[in-house]
Design brief:
The chain is α/β, with parallel strands linked by helices and about 400 residues long. The protein is built from 8 helices and 18 strands. The protein has 3 domains: about 250 residues, FAD/NAD(P)-binding domain, CATH 3.50.50.60; about 55 residues, no CATH class; about 80 residues, D-Amino Acid Oxidase, subunit A, domain 2 (D-Amino Acid Oxidase, Chain A, domain 2). The longest helix is centred in the N-terminal third of the chain and has 24 residues.
Length: about 400
């Protein structure tokens, strides 16, 4: 579902004479052989890895990003793109604060990425409306409104009449709404394209079709990585940001925490101007795009590394969407896709140092990868420079699973 990224670079071979940096291979493609040691290797080319590569390169570090396939082709590109710090219902835990702090960085972050890349990301700033259709749901929405107001968050309760004015296409029995004005959206494929260009223009090298299998270490310090086909890359610092595949990477002298793929299916309708806001209920959310599409998501399935779109998933999401916005029953079905969210054993991301000295983690974001992107990139770049992260990382310490 993502357009072709900028031209990639060749896989570097372990044996034989590698081309010199900047030379052309026999097919005329640019080859960036790693003849000099990098300061940092970022493993993973999703939105988190690209953002870290960009920010680390902008800080003056020599950065190479290694991606097993093509950048942005996994969970990041399949996401609906909600900056959902309130809609996810994290209440007052550490993840809630992390999401709110990251969401606050987004306006400046997107301005910078758009300027650096010359590309737009189709951001929409109408906010989100959570809808209650029965008395029990309405009572819970009122309680949620009270909790969020106590925390100083912007929220507005909409009675049935106000809800109808805001979203006339909602079903007739929608009785109460909670407007969350800061829950903006963007188009993830557009953000990924812009981030890759911005990272490369900042000086980061992006290598695709490079599957990292092992992080190597000597005397308790990171020395680099080796790939599935035997190539080696040297660096004193490695950042693992490989999403659902992170836990499968072997680390010398340390047991990596487990990662679990969580499949999320999305159904897409073509229905221009039907809704303005993100509209959410207990069983689905609807995300309008500027090009007239409406994305409906999403499932949460433990299906291993299976990205299949299933009839059951499509039927469940479509039925929930039509129950919320009946006019979708007459809309054109534009497509469906699935992505594998990166889960951890306790549902929290892994952020910070863990394992041999020089190994950093930025994965396990599950449903919050898009919203947590700018803050994750800032935290990791500060750690790479030897600075304080500026955020309490205790709940997200990768070493919490070691015991």
């Amino acid at each position: 579902m993502i357009g072709a990224p900028p031209p990639g670079v060749n896989r570097v071979r372990a044996a034989g004479a590698a081309p010199r940096a900047g030379s052309r291979d026999g097919c005329g493609r640019l080859s960036l052989a790693m003849t000099a040691q990098m300061d940092v290797l970022v493993v993973g080319g999703g939105v988190i890895g690209l953002a870290i590569a960009r920010e680390a390169a902008r800080s003056g570090l020599a950065v190479a990003l290694l991606e097993r396939g093509e950048t942005g082709r996994e969970a990041s590109g399949a996401s609906a793109g909600m900056l959902a710090a309130q809609l996810e219902g994290h209440d007052e835990g550490p993840l809630a604060r992390l999401c709110l702090d990251s969401r606050a960085l987004y306006p400046a972050f997107l301005d910078a990425v758009e300027q650096e890349s010359g590309l737009g990301v189709d951001r929409r700033v109408e906010g989100a409306i959570e809808v209650a259709r029965d008395a029990a749901a309405a009572e819970e929405l009122e309680r949620s409104c009270g909790r969020q107001r106590e925390r100083g968050l912007p929220v507005e309760l909409l009675d049935a009449a106000a809800l109808r004015r805001a979203e006339p296409a909602l079903r007739d029995d929608a009785r109460l709404g909670l407007h969350l004005p800061l829950e903006h959206t963007l188009d993830p494929p557009a953000l990924l394209r812009a981030l890759r260009i911005a990272a490369e223009r900042a000086g980061a090298r992006v290598l695709t079709s490079v599957e990292v299998a092992r992080v190597t270490a000597a005397n308790g310090r990171v020395s680099g990585v080796t790939t599935a086909d035997g190539a080696s890359y040297a660096a004193p610092r490695v950042v693992i940001a490989a999403g659902a595949w992170s836990g499968s990477i072997v680390v010398d002298g340390w047991t990596m925490p487990r990662s679990e793929p969580v499949r999320g299916q999305i159904v897409c309708f073509r229905a221009a101007d039907l809704i303005r806001h993100v509209v959410a209920a207990d069983d689905c959310y609807l995300v309008p795009r500027g090009d007239g599409r409406i994305l409906v998501g999403s499932t949460m399935e433990r299906a291993g590394f299976d990205r299949s779109v299933t009839p059951e998933g499509i039927e469940t999401l479509a039925a929930a969407a039509i129950a919320l916005v009946p006019a979708l029953a007459r809309a054109a079905l534009h497509g469906a896709w699935a992505g594998l969210r990166p889960g951890s054993d306790d549902g929290l991301p892994l952020l910070g140092q863990g394992g041999p000295e020089g190994l950093f983690h930025a994965w396990g974001h599950l449903r919050n990868g898009i919203v947590l992107t700018p803050l994750t990139a800032r935290i990791v770049t500060r750690l790479l420079a030897g600075d304080a992260p500026g955020t309490d990382l205790g709940p997200f310490d990768p070493r919490r699973f070691s015991a």
